[in-house]
Amino acid sequence: MKPPTDSYTAPDSLAGVRAGIRRCLERAADVAQLDIAAPEVSAWSVQDHLEHLLFSDRSVLDWILNALARPNPVTREESPHEFGVALLARGSIPRGRGPAPDFTLPDGMAPGELQTGFQALRELADGLKPRLAALDTCLHTLPHHVLGHFTPAEWLRFLHLHHRHHEAIIRDILETSRSVAPTA
After folding, report:
1. Greatest pairwise CA separation for the chain in angstroms
2. What is the pTM of this model?
3. Across the chain, how many H-helices and E-strands are there?
4. What b/e sequence results for 119-154 when a residue is b if at least 16 CB atoms lie within 10 Å of its CB, and e otherwise?
5. Rounded to whole angstroms, how far apart are CA atoms 121 and 38?
6. What is the helix (H) or strand (E) element at residue 144, kind and residue range?
């Protein structure tokens, strides 16, 4: 199945990733909320979700920049699985316990490290702005552990959706914790 190319654009995806990183920076700056958890919503705390996004984004954005520096292949190297194509086209990641790769699992960073990490991510994402045309035509692929092989443009789309997915979970964690917090 061929991935859709006209249902989203690299500029839209990059704008979404940049907005997601900005929200993560704001959340990381609010140290009081980092330890908040709601096990009925997620096994991870707010900080765990932020760390996961940081590790995922850093890995993918580094790969995208490296892929854009290499000669572009004539044909696409590999393709996403049908479910991967559907997820990108749908524009959202379903809730549930999807397996996260080990290198993206939270490891208890200090709040300052988390903020510094997202600041560095913001710079990586900003570095893609002048490379959007190359990003849209790059045919290198990197496999997602479940969804198949994505090009840089598809990975950028995935990161945008990934941020929206985890931001929604974080909002639910915070809302749930407020509704069960004892009142004075």
Report:
1. 66
2. 0.91
3. 7, 2
4. eebbebbeebeebbebbbebebbbebeebbbbbbbb
5. 27
6. strand 142-144
Q: How confident is the model at residue 6, as a pLDDT?
A: 44
How far is 6 from 107, CA to CA, in rounded Å?
A: 38
Tokens 């696409």 locate to: 76
Inform me whether the pLDDT recorded for 62 exceeds 70. Answer: yes
Q: How many angstroms separate the CA atoms of 144 and 158, rounded? A: 10
**Tens digits of residue pLDDT in 120-152:** 999 999 999 999 989 989 999 999 999 999 999
Phi, psi of 149 (to 5 degrees): -90, 130
Q: Is the pLDDT of residue 8 over 80?
A: no
Which of 70, 73, 76, 65 lies closest to 131 in space, CA to CA?
Answer: 65
What single-letter amino acid sits at 147? Answer: L
Distance CA 88, CA 155 (A): 9
Q: What is the 3-state secondary structure (H, E, C) of 57-68?
A: HHHHHHHHHHHH
Q: What is the mean predicted confidence (pLDDT) over 45-62?
A: 97
**Dihedral class, residue 81 (left if φ above 0, else alpha if ψ from -120 to 50, else beta):** beta
Q: List all residues 6 or more positions away from 167 whose beta carbon is below 8 Å from its beta carbon.
A: 20, 23
Q: Which residues touch 66 (CB under 8 Å, ≥6 apart)?
A: none
